[in-house]
Design the sequence.
């Protein structure tokens, strides 16, 4: 999915390479192809979380907290992760290499 040197910088910018993946069916068969970004939240766990793509409301209401996350992403996107209503991180993929 990602190169070994892929990392999240202090400001939320993602650097490194995201490889194109086919046949990843964690979400659905219609979303099985593309670029995916796996990461783990650190810090205190919560009970509920919200994932906002480019500021849009989360499609899943009252999502259970899970520290291990995989996002299907595009280079122009920003994703915000909120835990119990508090913003934890905003990821910016504009500087990542998509191949």
Sequence:
């Amino acid at each position: 999915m990602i190169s070994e040197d892929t990392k999240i910088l202090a400001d939320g910018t993602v650097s490194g390479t995201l490889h194109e993946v086919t046949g990843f069916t964690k979400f659905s068969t219609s979303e099985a192809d593309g670029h995916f970004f796996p990461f783990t939240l650190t810090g205190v766990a919560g009970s509920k979380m919200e994932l906002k793509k480019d500021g849009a409301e989360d499609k899943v209401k009252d999502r259970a907290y899970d520290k291990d996350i995989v996002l299907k992403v595009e280079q122009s996107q920003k994703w915000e992760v909120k835990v119990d209503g508090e913003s934890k991180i905003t990821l910016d993929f504009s500087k990542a290499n998509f191949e």
The mean pLDDT is 95. Residues 22 and 33 are 4 Å apart (CA to CA).
